[in-house]
Amino acid sequence: MSDELTPEMMEETAPDLLTLEDEDGQECTFEVVDATEVKGTRYLAVVPYVEDPANLNDDAELIIMRVGTDDEGEYMDIVDDDEELLEVGHVFEERLRAMFDIDDSELES
Predict the structure, then answer these.
(1) Model confidence over 85-109: pLDDT tens digits?
(2) What is the pTM of this model?
(3) How far is CA 60 from CA 8, 36, 37, 80, in A?
(4) How many Cα neighbours within 13 Å face the side chain of 73?
(5) Phi, psi angles (nearest 5°) of residue 38
(6) Residue pLDDT, tens place only, 24-65
(7) From CA 97, how far away is CA 84, in angstroms rounded?
(8) How many other C-beta atoms lie within 10 A of the C-beta of residue 17?
(9) What is the pLDDT of residue 21?
C-alpha cells in the first residue's frame, strides 16, 4: 500500500495536525496538507494550523518538511536547500493542483 495521500483520503479525514517545538521551545501546530516520497526521502507539506475557519489566511505559507531518522527516532527539518526545495516543491505543486483541482487560469498573475 502506498504512503501517499489520495484526494479521497484527504476529504474523508479530519485535519492531520502536527505539533512541533521550535528552537525557542515554543510549540507550533501545523496542518499536514500532503505527504510524499521523493528520491527515497519522505516529505510533508504543512501550513500553520488555524482552529477557527474565520481566521483562515488565504496567503498561508506552505512549508515543506523533510522526515528523517536518527538514533533517537524520527525527526523533521524544514527544507532550506534551494535546489531540494525547488525539486520537492514542484512535486507538491503538481500533487496539490490535482488534489484540489486548481486550474492555472484561476491563479493571479
Answers:
(1) 999 999 999 998 888 777 766 555 4
(2) 0.74
(3) 23, 20, 23, 18
(4) 0
(5) -130, 120
(6) 999 999 999 999 999 999 999 999 988 876 776 667 788 999
(7) 20
(8) 12
(9) 86
Cell 507550533 appears where? 28
Residues 6+ apart with CB under 8 A from 21: 27, 28
Give me the amino acid identity at 54: A
Is residue 11 scored above 80 in pLDDT?
no
Among all chains, which residue has been given the C-alpha cell 482552529? 51
| Residue 30 · residue 47 · CB < 8 Å | yes
92 within 8 A of 34, measured Cβ to Cβ: yes
Buried b (16+ CB within 10 A) or exposed e, 27-51: eeebebbbbbeeeeebbbbbeebee
Helices (H) and strands (E) in the chain, counts: 2, 5
How is residue 41 written as a grid cell? 526521502
Q: What's the DSSP call for residue 94? A: H
Please give the pLDDT value at position 66.
Answer: 97
